[in-house]
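Input set for joint prediction.
Command: fold jointly, output tokens.
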Amino acid sequence: MRTVTTRAELEQSLAQLPRPIALVPTMGALHAGHAALIDTARRTAATVVVSIFVNPRQFANAADVARYPRTLEGDEQLAKAAGADLLFTPTVDEIYPPSETVATIEPGPLASRLEGASRPGHFAGVATVVSRLFDLVRPDEAYFGVKDAQQVRVVAWMAAQRSDRITIHRVATVRDRDDLALSSRNQMLSANGRVAAAKTIPVALSLIAEAYASGVTSVATLRTLAERVITAEPSVTLDYLDFADSASLVPLAEDAHVGDAASGEVLVSLAAVVDGVRLIDAITLP
Ligand code: PAF
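tokens >
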């Protein structure tokens, strides 16, 4: 595996690598969830490119960008072991050259609620950097985790607006032994915060999945079950717990039932803050 940091080096390396090319865009601090993305890409693509770039345009402020974990040495080892061919680790100036205006990409109709409502401008930043990476790497396909449920939908919408027909693949969430979804942000949790997160977030979603499997379909009832678990833990603050149609992200009314979703699938997503760290997780109900 080769590591390149400039656009010129990227271009040179790509010219020698066979198609189809898969891109796995990341912000680094790689973990087994990223390894699963790389490994899945490896099964079909001739070349797997992993990008590591902490994108300032998707954060609300510079302090959040600065405290995002950076573990490049370990990332290189993980990417290589998982099967990447090329690691692209650009600087901010490589992605957003001061001499060029990199236009903000419209994130589309799925971007305004959930994370979009809590983090204004976030998905415009994500759409912009992913679109920029698509322009630079020119992949045939790209891989994203379904934990970031809204992100993968926004990216798929953005990709569909482009003429280059990049296929967007969704890869299942990887969970730790305590069931907490793997996330680079977990590294920022204290030991107590980690325990609190694990005994609330995945438990709340599992309770919903189990109750639904045993025949409970009322949105209000499922919500109450999950909210009870989260509000019982004072160190965890729930931002939202949302039941929406999985395709349109249109919310289901409180008196609705899971079967009312037009697409036939409901996305249950939540965001909670633990130790000042924002964590998200999601499941779908068929
Ligand atoms: O999910 C992430 O790590 C980021 O949002 C992404 C897709 C790499 C864009 O910066």
